[in-house]
Amino acid sequence: MxxxxxxxxxxxxxxxxNILCKSAxxxxxxxxxxxxxxxxxxxxxxxDYYEVRFGKNNFMxxxxxxxxxxxxxxxxxxxxxxxxTRNDCTPRRDANTMYSKVAIMEQVLDLxxxxxxxxxxxxxxxxxxxxxxxxxxxxxxxxxxxxxxxKGTNQVDTSKYPIPTTLLNNPxxxxxxxxxxxxxxxxxxxxxxxxxxxxxxxxxGLFQTEREFMADSIKRLIAIGK
Length: 226
Fold this sequence. Notes:
8-stranded antiparallel beta sheet, 22% strand, 226 residues, disordered N terminus
């Protein structure tokens, strides 16, 4: 049944659907692939890295939605095909939370325009900060965590990559006291052992100049230029 709710973000139901469709297309740039974030706080620091697999099935959860009509994969497909309806969008927690997450989706998921994005380990105590790393800016963040467990146990499967687990509409500095600048993002498809696509670099041509200064642990992950 369609529902009418008050929401703190000022979005109409039609605007919510429009943003979901636009955000799905942004997400499609890296859906069902793994990204390697390479970052540092300042120029004198050594490069650090973090890997995340972005599944199509994670998209609905990021929107704060638990659809009663569609599976997670079909929900993403409906957003891509612009056939999503209000009936498909049941809030996972409550309507205000859903609207607040969707309101920032475009800004947070647009990783290709990430000069103002930051990544950093969560170190500030807040509510709803159940994640280990995050990317974000002054608008909001996307948090990541290792959530996939070994079948039949409660133990995290360390052979699986972290996944995106949440969107929050607070500046990253509310979660991370020392956010670091994302310098490069590399990409690989499922089944590939190394990263051979440059998804983003903060300055054109910088990756080829800087890769020789990266730690061996990062170099082993990269196939670009080999």
